[in-house]
Amino acid sequence: MTDLLAIGTRKGLWLARSEDDRRSWTLDGPHLLAQEVAAVAIDTRRPEPRVLAGTQYGHWGPTVMWSDDLGGAWNETDHGAITFPEDTGAALARVWQLRPDSAERPDVVWAGCEPHSLWRSTDGGCSFELVRGLYDHPHRPTWEPGGGGGAVHTVLPDPASDRVTVAMSTGGVYVSDDGGDKWEPRNRGITVVFGPDPLPEYGQCVHKVAVDAAGPDRMYAQNHFGVFRTDDAGVSWTSIAEGLPVDFGFPIVASPHTPDTAWVIPLVADMQRVPKDGRLRVHRTRDAGETWTELGNGLPDGNWSAVMRDAFCSDGHGTTGLYFGTRDGCVYASADEGDSFTLVADHLPDVLTVRAASLP
Amino acid sequence: MEVVLPGVLADLAGGSKHLRVESGGATVADLLDALAAEHPLLARRIRDETGKVRRFVNVYVDGEDVRYSEGVATPVKDGAVVQVLPSVAGG
Question: Least enclosed by CB within 10 Å: which of A64, A97, A112, A318?
């Protein structure tokens, strides 16, 4: 078995491989050199795994590219994989998220994009159709761009139903129970610090949402200040930040197997996006956020970088592997659920996204 | 009309930096539409889906930047040379 780690950066994509159950890694790249890769996915539902990359040429615009031979050759759709319909007057600015759906929907791939939009592919990610139900939502004009741009950055299709959950900066969490036609905001309890109402119905700057292994109704959110949990599919959220040193940050990852287990990488504040005291640390909960444990074995002190919202992921092993990359181009891996980390790569460009998969 | 491409885009036009394009129209937009019919991927590098020339792409008609003329509505006469260049940007 090969473990594959895709690392998207501001200036290209790298692929790391491990043949020894994640103890050591070899790095292959750059692929797509000089292209920003802000979204990446490894689609293992196909006979040959497909690597999907949301790319952005500095001059020549964004698109989705794919490789069916692990980076040997890259393909793209002539007319653009993602193009806004003419009546919208909009143009694609960046692909923020690529998310293969379940094995039962083998050709469906979702994309979250800037400007705020959700897209659905039924051909494995070669071409996408705008999900009009969300784009035409009456709230959309109020979804302001965050510092990185206004985007749907999180897409969570429920493998067992037609529910789709998205998160946006800004906008917050929206849920559709019919596959994307009708949407409702689900942010009650998630706070904002940048508006006069601390608890609006929508408009939050939710940085990332992850689904707990117990089931789709329990989710975690790393917010623009605050970490929250819902047990009712987002109808209400409660703070689980007590026990963290600081509650700002971007990514949050939930265990794919073990209920109540999740990880965050806190930063001091929106205007101080660095680890507290320069100590790059992961924090883990085993009880759905009631308590947190700091994990730092193998992680550096004197680190003044940051981890972006999609630059943290897990793998599918029974003992969950964790992977994250920093804005100073370091990539760390843990094969023991965060108890210890090793350096996979350094001196890369800013890491924007990582995704891991096991290949036969 | 002749379209001159930077080397980095030539691969999308069969390897040639110099293309002969018959647009059947009178403007830069018409010319780029004709280019898109023949080389859609190349055209997507130059313009977004709204038809707007990308922010960091410059298009010149006989040496004049169309941004300071009429944009993609800039007239293109028979025999004109239309040059596409990446602007000052990078990373």
Answer: A318
